[in-house]
């Protein structure tokens, strides 16, 4: 565990198991992932996992061989992607609002029996005869 991890999740005592001292690993769903990496020897990544405090992390678990570890171990690399995840959520919310507005506008147009959604925000077009200008020659002599 390095200083950045301790700053993000708090200090942990050395020599204890991840399951015993790192509740955030369970919260992020990393314990089964770490077991998979140990068994398979292949790296695995999970993206944009949310923590209780509202942060988001992308986590990569890598198998490591070390003479100090019987059967090897797992190196866990966590990247804080909170800003990215929040921006993506804002974009999804904006797109949802846009779709809802478009559906509302389309329904409004349908109720008014206007055929073109592009003209729906304005009154329906009038007939050609009513759009012609009155003659300037009208009047009395």
Write the layout of secondary structure elements.
Blueprint: H1 3-9, H2 18-21, H3 23-27, H4 30-40, E1 44-50, E2 56-64, E3 73-80, H5 82-112, H6 128-131
Description of the molecule:
Strands 1-2-3 form a 3-stranded antiparallel beta sheet, with helices on both faces. It has helices at 3-9, 18-21, 23-27, 30-40, 82-112, 128-131, and strands at residues 44-50, 56-64, 73-80. 44% of the residues lie in helices and 17% in strands. It has a domain at 3-80: PAS domain (Beta-Lactamase). It is elongated and about 75 Å long. It contains 6 helices and 3 strands. It has 141 residues and is an alpha+beta fold. A hairpin with a 5-residue loop joins strand 1 and strand 2 (56-64).
Architecture per CATH nomenclature, i.e. the level-2 architecture of the domain at 3-80: 2-Layer Sandwich
Low-confidence stretches: none
Give the distance, in angstroms, between the N- and C-terminal Cα atoms: 101 Å
User: How big is the Rg?
Assistant: 31 Å
Mean of all residue-level pLDDT scores? 79
Q: Report the sheet-strand fraction.
A: 15-25%
Keywords, please?
Beta-Lactamase; 44% helix; alpha+beta; elongated; 141 residues; 17% strand; 3-stranded antiparallel sheet; 6 helices
Question: Summarize this, please?
Answer:
This protein has helices spanning 3-9, 18-21, 23-27, 30-40, 82-112, 128-131, and strands spanning 44-50, 56-64, 73-80.
């Amino acid at each position: 565990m390095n200083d950045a991890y301790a700053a993000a999740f708090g200090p942990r005592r050395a020599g204890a198991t991840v399951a015993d001292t790192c509740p955030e690993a369970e919260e992020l769903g990393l314990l089964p992932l770490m077991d998979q990496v140990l068994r398979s020897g292949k790296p695995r990544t999970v993206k944009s996992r949310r923590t209780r405090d509202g942060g988001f992390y992308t986590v990569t678990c890598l198998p490591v061989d070390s003479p100090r570890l019987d059967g090897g171990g797992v190196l866990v690399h966590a990247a804080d992607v909170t800003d990215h995840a929040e921006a993506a959520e804002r974009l999804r919310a904006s797109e949802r609002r846009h779709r809802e507005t478009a559906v509302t506008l389309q329904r409004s147009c349908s109720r008014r029996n206007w055929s073109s959604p592009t003209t729906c925000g304005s009154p329906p077009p009038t007939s050609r005869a009513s759009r012609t200008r009155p003659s300037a020659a009208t009047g009395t002599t």
